[in-house]
Every structure is written in structure tokens, then in C-alpha cells.
């Protein structure tokens, strides 16, 4: 035990398997939100979100405003405020004042490279918070600004918000962002995902162009977005690209994206690639098939294909992926 009873109670609650929805637990979490340590506040907010304690929403909001006062001292790294905002999004806070404040908030802190804006992720999460409770045009306008933010976490959040919006009105903005590009491949991939959710009919044809990009990461992120959406026709697109790309790491990633489709045709294709003449591709296919989970007799068929190669290396890959 330390001389900090709130921290001790929170750690005890964190270690306990008991419900966090009890009155005693709620009291502990409420007190933790007022703690001087932003890391204690951060963990309390995470636990409140995990337990879905809607009754503590007002206390989360109060903690957010408190941490904004003298933020470099009270909340270095913006850890507390960012986690609070994530919790409020998860708890579906309908009061937009906090999100509207956070989406423009910046917290510049000293860094060995100069300065870093530790509130970038917070801005992105606030965009997501606005999606279901504000007019569509406000979400679009706010995300248009964030997509040009200097910090990738903010741009990533904007793309995620547009994907959550899922409306055709977001498509032109996403097309423009994809054509102008982004230094971070993850942001590009999130924009692809958002476009595929916003414009299923035309989005698929539009994002295909990035599969031939000389930027390997951009190609992979595009393929990942396609694999996750599982739209009809995606398998033929990814199979064709896999056959044309020569980079080993890209080919491996493309097979994993094909595995995400979880369709009969994708499974049959991957099983055919388990061949002793190309052990590396065979190993990549075994890993991709594992993404399908325990579907029917797929594990047995995969194991039979591996055994047919008589490769000890491939058998080890199968055991690592499927049996461990």
C-alpha cells in the first residue's frame, strides 16, 4: 500500500475479476477521475468505457475540462483527455460541446525534434464523436479541415469519421484526399475503407488504381481495405494484382488480404498455392487460410495440402499458425 488511497483502490479494482459496475467500483472510478496523475485518470476512463458506466459520463466530461486547465502540467502527452474522449465516444455522449472543443484543440509540447502536438489523436477521435449527433454538413466540414492536418493521427481520425458517417456525400472529399495523397500509408488505407463504405458502387472501381502504385505500402493498404469490405468482385481484383506484383513482402500481404475475404473461391485459390515448388508462397498461403478461422473442414484440408508437400518447414508453419 502507498500513501495514495485512490491509486491503491484503482489498482485493486484493476486486478480484481469482480464487476466494475458495482456502486463501490463506480465510486472508486469517479474519485480516480479527479486524481492529480493523468495516468490514473487515463486508466479510470478506460475502465469506465470497458464497463459501459454511462452514469459516469458527466464525471468524464468534468475531468476533460479540468485537464484542459494548465494542460502541460496536469495532462502531459494529452493522455487523460484523449482517453476520456474515447470513452465518451464509446458511451455515445450526445452533448457535442466537448467534441466541438476537442476537434480544434492543440497541445504543443517540447520534444527532442522540436515540438510535438500531443492532441492530434484527440482531434481525430472528436470527429468520430460528432458523427451521429450533428448535421452531416458539419461532419463533412470538420473532416475536410482535419484531412489537411499536419499530424497523421488527426487525418486518420477524420477518415475513420467519414467511414462511420457512411454517406455518399463524403465520397467527393475522400476521392480528393486519395488523389492528392498522404505521406502516411495508414491514412491512405483508411480513406480507401471510408470510400468503400460511402460509395459501394463506384468506390471499388476508384480505389483499384492504387493497387498498381509504385509505393508498396500504399498498394498493401489499398488491398487491406478491399479485403476487409469483402465486396463482390474483390477476389478477382486481388488475385490479379498478386500475380503482377514482384515484391515478396507485397505478395505476402496480398495473400493475407485474400484470406480476409473468407469466401470459397479465395480458400480454394490459397489451397492450390500450397505447393512444394514454392515453399515461401505456400507458407504465406497457410497463414492467409488461418484468417478464415475454423470453417468446416478447412483446417483438415490445409493440413493435408501441407503434408503432401513433405516439407518440414511448411509443417512447422502450419503448426505455429493453426495449433498454437
Automatic annotation (TrEMBL):
Q: Which InterPro entries match?
A: ARM-like, ARM-type_fold
Official protein name in the record = HEAT repeat domain-containing protein
Q: Which organism is it from?
A: Blastopirellula marina
